[in-house]
Amino acid sequence: MLRKNHFTVKHIYHVKFKIGIAVPPSNDIDVYSQDIGLISIIEDGKLVGFNVTVGGGMGMTHGNTKTYPQLGRLIGYFPKEHALDVCEKILTIQRDYGNRQERKNARFKYTVDRYGADWVLSELNNRLGWSLESPREFHFDHNGDRYGWTEGSGKWHFTLFIQNGRVKDTEDYKLKTALRKIAEIHTGDFRLTPNQNLVIANVDAQKKPEIEALIDEYGLTDGKHYTGLRRNSMACVAFPTCGLAMAESERYLPSLITKIEDLLDEAGLSEEEITIRMTGCPNGCARPALAEIAFIGKAPGKYNMYLGASFTGDRLNKMYKENIGEAEILESLRPILLQYAKERTEGEHFGDFVVRAGIVDAVNDGQVFHS
Ligand code: SF4
User: Domain Nitrite/sulphite reductase 4Fe-4S, which positions (predicted)?
Assistant: First the structure.
């Protein structure tokens, strides 16, 4: 997106910097977790511009409360033709004011917290030579994927549920073989989603029956026959792939979900859409701080448990229990799920309920994540 060679070698800043674009009502990219988040503003079916958020990020270090996940702060709106200029000027603010002395404090989220979002806006306006407008109205419904078939731009797109993003063949689910067969006849493309799923994209109407036949033949799923919890689950790879892992994640979450599903069944909540995420360490690759239920690995078999993020990805969760194993996870969740089933208001999501019920405090600013 940025002009090639604009940042010369001496300006290279060796810190991760993420830019994401969300199209309401879907927040599938978790726009508040991005260093720069662009929220598309659509009017009369046309993109007119973007609201911009600054300074989101997930990573932290266990035991170091100066590190924390943070939400991007909404600072304004600009017409779409300025997207490149706005992103470039924000990057130069981080280049000039980011902390180069302390690596754990180097991400843009800490720069924004150190100087304040108002200062970032004013500095950005100065560098642009014009001012952002007030943010425009928008609304997010969810931060997951839209499964199944959708139609757009004269083509068809099928979002396939892939548990934790792992494509492999098992005895009773030949996912890898099926995708290879589809690839042999598919004239469109495949797209990885930020929720670890796969879109078989740009399917021509005349090709759709053939793709559908393969989907049926191999029993590929849009997730509908899974619980709302499993459909909204995500885990990082952790062991054995990631050298930073402190606990299992991808290989463990599916079996933990099976046990939580028994609790959901008991509470009559099997169809309830609840986001659940797990990572093997606090670097947060599966964006756990934005899940209604989350687990962050501390040691083999031990996790910190977090509750209370919003279903739309605009509120962080809060630690509920520290360093617990599976038995305590299930013991802790059971009464809360039963209470949720009994006391929730119509349409109230689990994360909102645990905050309203006082089970955890709302965290709308990462600076109070640990307090
Ligand atoms: S969250 Fe930690 S364990 Fe998981 S993939 Fe990222 S760095 Fe590895």
Answer: 16-131
